[in-house]
């Protein structure tokens, strides 16, 4: 069943992909404009570009590039090392705890349903996301990402008049955007 969902999702048109890119850039840029002049704004721009890259690739291919995950980990570690206000021990603990939790959820879902509902790329992506948010704020971020994804899937299921179980939706874009909101609002 997941193979047919994946195959059906590959019919995204070029205009739809362009629209996704433009919308991502507009939302991220508007949020950055609200930050105003900040000495580390270049880091926020770089992280935003990484999140957009992850979101677009995950949307198009249902996979998260390892290079993007590594780049986001490096950016998060740089931020933690250079910002004295960041409690680095808590952020490192979150980067250990959250991927383990996501892997447990992934395996339980696979065991119960017989197919992957959460990819291993999402598990790996939780490392930099938890580094950016810390262990407590990551809980809020995951809740926001989950509610956003569920809301969109329910809307799509209603519009297409299909059961929600027949829809495939990448979770990475929701995680990235929720992390970005959580991280930037904490700066």
Overall description:
80% of the residues lie in helices and 0% in strands. The chain has one domain (10-186). With 187 residues, it is an all-alpha fold. Mean pLDDT is 85; it is low at 1-11. It is globular and about 50 Å long. The chain has helices at 2-9, 14-35, 41-61, 66-82, 88-113, 120-160, 172-186. Helix 4 (66-82) crosses helix 6 (120-160). 28% of the residues are buried.
Q: Into which percent range does the helicity of residues fall?
A: over 70%
Mean pLDDT: 85
What are the secondary-structure elements, in order, as H or E? HHHHHHH
Shape: globular
Structural class: mainly alpha
The helix tally amounts to: 7
- What is the number of strand segments? 0
Report, as a whole number of angstroms, the end-to-end distance: 43 Å
Q: Over all CA atoms, what is the radius of gyration?
A: 17 Å
Briefly characterize the structure.
This protein is mainly alpha-helical and 187 residues long.
Describe the secondary structure blueprint for this structure.
Layout: H1 2-9, H2 14-35, H3 41-61, H4 66-82, H5 88-113, H6 120-160, H7 172-186
List keywords for this structure.
7 helices; mainly alpha; single chain; 187 residues; globular
């Amino acid at each position: 069943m997941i193979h047919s969902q994946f195959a059906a999702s590959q019919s995204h048109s070029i205009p739809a992909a362009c629209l996704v890119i433009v919308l991502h850039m507009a939302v991220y840029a508007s949020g950055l404009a609200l930050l105003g002049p900040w000495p580390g704004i270049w880091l926020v721009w770089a992280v935003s570009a990484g999140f957009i890259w992850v979101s677009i690739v995950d949307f198009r291919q249902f996979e998260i590039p390892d290079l993007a995950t590594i780049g986001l980990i490096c950016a998060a570690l740089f931020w933690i090392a250079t910002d004295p206000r960041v409690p680095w021990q808590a952020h490192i603990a979150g980067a250990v705890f959250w991927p383990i939790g996501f892997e447990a959820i992934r395996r339980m879902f696979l065991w119960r349903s017989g197919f992957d509902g959460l990819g291993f790329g999402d598990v790996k992506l939780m490392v930099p996301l938890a580094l950016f948010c810390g262990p407590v704020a990551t809980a809020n971020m995951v809740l926001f990402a989950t509610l956003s994804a569920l809301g969109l899937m329910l809307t799509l299921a209603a519009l297409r008049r299909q059961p929600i179980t027949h829809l495939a939706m990448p979770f990475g874009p929701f995680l990235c955007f929720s992390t970005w909101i959580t991280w930037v609002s904490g700066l």
